[in-house]
Specification:
By secondary structure, this protein is mainly α. The chain contains 18 helices and two strands.
Length: 498
């Protein structure tokens, strides 16, 4: 008999659950909506901030190669997500996929992981947005009191009122409906993509070829304990990873990976898509391809405009234009970044609420949260609860040290989804798959290896914090989820238990 910890929820039952009137989400999204959502959440803090950091500290002008490596890792995972999202068009993304293939406990683990990933991602982006707004207000001569400013790096009491207010406003928009969210996203994404294209086109006129020399700077050893990859690779191959050089590109890729986080959120909206079998693969793969091309182009332009050793860490795109004597572009980029981060925050919050909703519908979290609004057909209860919690988190907590947790959480989800594709291909070969990932099991295995490699390049303290969150998740599951899951209740009914 299969252990209760690994009982699976079959695909047919998952789809039937989406048709229950009290727990059914409204289907209103098209392939274009999904692509816009994907582009909207992917283009954000990563490209506007991380380019300067990794160019200066890890890869030099070869940061473009780091974006390419991170994009390839995401593409491997995206093919697996596309197969699952078109086969199991149910809210929950990796959580739902693993429940259908790996079992209840693995599903809980990945769901708990996604709750952390999206919550921290939302809060981090909200704080980053607040920083841009404060900068724009300062330029206009307006300044908020210090106690109401950004908390990142601050001491003493303070509350970032702008970050908290943003989360609460976006919570209200998500409660009112997915179509309204899609319209807001479309407008904001148009502004954001325009900014990125301006950087590429205008910046191309200010490129100096000498700034690309050396394209891959000479390697420098990574300090001991900086990440888990260093001792592992030295033990296996006799040499250690480095900042700069070829290994510096991989180290940079594990950092700029943050810039790609979000395409997997498209999968959380599968249940709200009119034709998920056709549109989910288009939305996931299309948004990832567009953003990868834009990222590589932007990084090549910025490192060509200014020597990588002189790039700004806080605002590399804007400051590169200042360095070439064009401050107007810098102001335009700062405005576009602030506008763009708004939709990143909203879609991260959207992804978290859908995972929470799916877990509560399965009974692993209180079923109270799985009822949709009678008029708007949105999961309003978890949206409001999580929105308030994240608003408080963003207002009171400096989150720069926790941002790496978002990376490790996403990469862990990639590993689980790739494993799930392999297992479901063997256990349910009869399922209709509108989209099939190629070269299974070789492609998922490659995705697992690539994701694990980037995880090993993250700091050791990130692994420790991740382990603590996972341990807390096990406690919650064994105290509540295991006893209250719908599969557990069905099993009791079958054996006639009270």
């Amino acid at each position: 008999m299969t252990s209760p910890l690994f009982r699976t929820k079959n695909v047919e039952q998952s789809i039937l659950d989406t048709e229950e009137p009290e727990h059914a989400l409204k289907k209103s999204l098209s392939a274009l909506d999904l692509t816009v959502f994907g582009v909207g959440v992917i283009i954000g803090t990563g490209i506007f901030v991380l380019t300067g950091t990794v160019a200066k500290n890890n890869a030099g002008p070869a940061v473009a190669l780091a974006f390419l490596v991170a994009g390839v890792v995401c593409a491997l995972a995206a093919l697996c997500y596309a197969e699952f999202a078109s086969t199991v068009p149910v809210a929950g993304s990796a959580y739902t996929f693993s429940y259908a293939s790996l079992g209840e406990l693995p599903a809980w683990i990945i769901g708990w992981d996604l709750v952390l990933e999206f919550a921290l991602g939302t809060a981090v982006v909200a704080v980053g947005w607040s920083g841009y707004i404060h900068s724009l207000l300062d330029n206009a001569g307006w300044r908020l009191p210090a106690t109401l400013g950004t908390r990142d790096g601050a001491e003493g009491f303070g509350f970032d009122i702008l970050a908290a207010a943003l989360v609460l406003v976006l919570t209200g928009i998500l409660v009112l409906g997915m179509k309204l969210s899609a319209r807001v996203t479309s407008i904001v994404v148009a502004v954001k993509v325009t900014v990125v294209l301006v950087v590429i086109v205008a910046g191309a006129f200010f490129i100096t070829a000498d700034n690309y020399t050396p394209f891959v700077p000479r390697a420098q050893p990574v300090p001991a304990g900086d990440n888990l990859a260093a001792p592992l690779v030295q033990l296996m191959f006799g040499w250690a990873p480095a900042n700069f050089g070829v290994m510096g590109v991989f180290t940079a890729a594990s950092v700029v990976f943050f810039a790609f986080i979000g395409f997997d959120i498209v999968a959380t909206a599968a249940e709200e898509t009119r034709n998920p079998q056709r549109d989910m693969p288009r939305g996931i793969l299309g948004s990832l391809f567009i953003c990868t091309v834009l990222y590589i182009a932007v990084s090549l332009v910025v490192t060509g405009m200014q020597k990588y050793t002189q790039l700004s860490v806080d605002a590399p795109l804007a400051d590169a234009f200042k360095a070439t004597g064009h401050p107007w572009y810098a102001g335009f980029i700062s405005f576009g970044a602030a506008v763009g981060l708004t939709v990143v925050c909203m879609i991260l919050l959207l992804g978290q609420t859908r995972v929470f909703f799916a877990m509560s519908r399965d009974g692993l979290l209180p079923r109270f949260f799985s009822r949709v609004h009678p008029r708007f057909k949105t999961p309003h209860r978890p949206t409001i609860l999580l929105g308030v919690i994240i608003a408080v988190l963003a207002g009171f907590t400096p989150l720069s040290e926790l941002a790496a947790l978002v990376n490790i959480g996403t990469l862990f989800a990639f590993v689980v989804v790739a494993i799930s594709v392999i297992i479901l291909r063997r256990t349910r070969p009869d399922l209709h798959r509108a989209f099939r990932a190629p070269l299974v099991p070789f492609l998922p295995i490659l995705s697992i290896a690539a994701s694990l490699w980037l995880m090993l390049n993250l700091p050791a303290e990130t692994w420790l914090r991740f382990a603590v969150w996972m341990a807390l998740g096990f406690v919650v599951y064994f105290l509540y989820g295991r006893k209250h899951s719908r599969l557990a209740e069905a099993r009791k009914a079958d054996v006639g238990a009270p």
